[in-house]
Amino acid sequence: MLINVPERVVEDALRGMAAAHPELTVDVANRVVVRRDAPVANKVGLVSGGGSGHEPLHGGFVGPGMLDAACPGEVFTSPVPDQMLRAAAAVDSGEGVLFVVKNYTGDVLNFEMAAELAAEEGIRVETVVVRDDVALPAGEGAGRRGTGGTLFVERLAGAVAEAGAPLERVTEVAHRVADACRSFGVALAPCSTPARGGPTFDLPEGELELGIGIHGEPGRERRGMMTSGEIADATVDALVGDLRPDDPVLVLVNGMGATPLLELYGYASEVSRALAERSVVPARMLVGDYVTSLDMAGCSVTLCPVDEELLRLWETPVRTAALRWGA
Amino acid sequence: MLINVPERVVEDALRGMAAAHPELTVDVANRVVVRRDAPVANKVGLVSGGGSGHEPLHGGFVGPGMLDAACPGEVFTSPVPDQMLRAAAAVDSGEGVLFVVKNYTGDVLNFEMAAELAAEEGIRVETVVVRDDVALPAGEGAGRRGTGGTLFVERLAGAVAEAGAPLERVTEVAHRVADACRSFGVALAPCSTPARGGPTFDLPEGELELGIGIHGEPGRERRGMMTSGEIADATVDALVGDLRPDDPVLVLVNGMGATPLLELYGYASEVSRALAERSVVPARMLVGDYVTSLDMAGCSVTLCPVDEELLRLWETPVRTAALRWGA
């Protein structure tokens, strides 16, 4: 691994972000990444965070048109309420703050606690929890995991916040997007965490796991190797569900970390074909490593059905380390 | 691997590019990727290409402010002259075309042949060969390999071409940048090509190879695992050479494909420290997977010393799949 010592991985990465991105304020000691011009007057602040190891999520999504701040935890471990509170205080212009939280027990609890602490300091906080992973049934245990859909929530809520919408409206957009998104992931090889120094789960060569989470949580089914086309069919079948045909859809074809971009674009062509065969119309398709799982080999697809308004918001300028267009 | 069959990997990827990037014209059958508005009136055309497996290079760099067209070969195999000729014809507005060629025997020969064919069709062609890899001595065999420096040549020559400079001037900038760039790469684990289905070279776990090429060509030295800081010191020592201290430098901290972005940012912080200790001033630092080697684990660093003019060109708008800012 390209590291110094496992204990310093997150700190080292934050130092690197500071070196590469003068447009961000990186508080290495307290582990908070904030857009440099925060708090932006008359703008709702967007804060997210979660365990490290999913980069560019969330720090790579901090900037105009997306997040105001991100709080990275240790690898695959929730950040602590103090980080979130600092982030909220740094970005609150008086218009309030929206927390975007992936649905994992630690993250949900810690963001809840941070929201209470922020309220005590007079910061209005709303929270949206993202549960887009359709691999597991919705009603069981802690519920569905938050994965690639987080990108769409952060981007679309970020866009409407940047346009000056009040907290209620930003929250409404975030909930609408979170409810609409659905994701499904496949692992071809496990990832290795710095602390373990080896694979987080066992996946024999020549097999793959359908419905995998972004921390190597078990999936729906283990199978012998499939072609890219077969994986796309299985994935799209798991995703289309109650989707109304001909609704425009934003599509994320996401690499988990170690999948070559050459292969990921090939997979995107199969996803595109599989969607077309089911009368789903990709309005925009984003291909790349956006919500990763360290060096896991594999891919996920997220569908985000949109109306005209959301599609227009998607197109507004965004300027972050990992997602950037317009202005 | 996330593929259908090895023989169709490049074709599938091009289909995916077409699906994801309506701003590009992708000729899948002839394997040419062209910016949709080509030829741009009164603008010199920039064409590059090379073996596939290094994505986003070169197709991901096609767009305003960078390349006009890219020709992908088979994995780790030069494209053929016919592709380059088609690309030249598609982008020539009458102002001529610059070929940006990485220094590998096949690429150099095929681009030479394409330049002759283009001349016969009345297209003025100039060529710049990039030989930025300092791992091997400059004077031996086929000379130094072209690697990460290609990004800077394509970007800076692309910027001056976009501004309307004539072919002589675009060529001069390209040569100046190509001469100035120097790169050094390190592999922590080999890559696997679709055709082989397994590793391209043998690198025992717990060892790394310093001075590796982007096709797994042997490096300068094999060693036991080093920390990220030690790798940065060895890399920067290999790079600074005759660099004048206090010259501003563009820095690329490049992932080879399977290195987690979390680790790459940590490495960027060590590169930044190592440069500072040697009085080198990074004017801008780019961190990410830009010139890859399929799923190789590892990293490279490219330094591109710049003057005020080149720094200004770097900052002008660019709008490609992989590099994008401004406008």
UniProtKB/TrEMBL annotation, chains A, B:
Record's GO cellular component terms: cytosol
Stored PROSITE patterns: DHAK
EC number of this enzyme: 2.7.1.121
Biological process terms in GO annotation: glycerol catabolic process
GO terms assigned for molecular function: glycerone kinase activity; phosphoenolpyruvate-glycerone phosphotransferase activity
Domain DhaK: 5-325
Keywords, sorted A to Z: Kinase, Transferase
Pfam families per record: Dak1
Enzyme class name: transferase
Name this protein carries in UniProt: Dihydroxyacetone kinase subunit DhaK
Organism whose genome encodes this protein: Streptomyces alkaliphilus
Gene designation: dhaK
